[in-house]
Amino acid sequence: MALLLAVATVSQAQAQSPSPTPTPTPTPTPSPTPTVINSNFSAGSTVTNLGSNFLERLGNKATSGFDKAMRSNPGGGGASESTEAPRFRSWAEGYGLTATTGPLGYFVGDRRRTYGGVVGVGARVAPGVNVGFSVDQSHTAIDIPLALQSATLDLTQFGFNASVDKGPWTWAVALVHGFGKVNSSRDTGFGFATAGYNARLGGALTELSYYWSSDQSRIVPKVAFEYVRASTGSLQETGGLDPVMATGATAERARILIGAEVGRYWIFDQKIFDVSAYGKFVDNVAQNFNSVTVSLGAQSVVVQGIGESRYGADAGASASLSLSNTARLYLNYDAKYRAAMRSHQGTLGLELKW
Predict the structure, then answer these.
(1) 348 and 97 in contact (C-beta within 8 Å)?
(2) Closest CA to 86 of 269, 328, 332
(3) What's the rounded Cα separation, in Å, for the pair 90 and 222?
């Protein structure tokens, strides 16, 4: 009996002792990942490439074999080379561009579509010396489906080009300055995190070409050096789950382009029809990209910028119809091939001279 009472007493004491309070598990602080700013790197790459495209088109206006022939012999074909060429010219272009970039490390790849227009004026300021000014306005839609991100870029570029003809040689220079606005959107699963920031670019190109012709055919070897610097501002996302902030990004690229243009023209019914094609080897001799710090609350990660492959190739073709010695319609196709990037651009233009 005494033993039963002792066991009951112990059991009652154990039942009345308080249970230990469990230690709460701390909520982990979310950390940003490099993928969350894929649209930022894609926008910066787009700014750089659009600057390069504009520079190269300006340079081609000076070293194009057909334009060189018309400056030297504005009547074309069997016309006298003493025929006076129109002194002033203007042009208007509309273009569309598609580009894709494959995966590169933390960058999952993107698709870009650009539509734009160019207007320009030029003049022959001295025998063999020509200058031009132009404005390029474009809108780009960027899609990064694997990262659930998208962005738009509205870019304005101002361009200047000049050329000097000396016999079969032509030396050309082109300068570009641009600015724009980027708007990005990221699907966080609990709404969209959006941001807006600025973009700027500047660039220069110098090109040397040699014009060789036989009857109505031509070969024009070319060599060029190009430098472009582009930057995007810092961003602060708003909305969605875990919006991040990131510092600005800067990219610099210097490249050498070596290639040639081949072409031929025909004269019929007092009109000139010309076709040409070109190919270029591209060597990105220097590429510098600063690192970007991505922050989410107290957590941050440093992400290094991405660039093109060292080597690549450009190719394209053109068709031109001169309705008279003062009016010309032209259609251009330009393609760029890199290890992880492809782009294709079509341009329709009208040039008037007086």
Answers:
(1) no
(2) 328
(3) 25
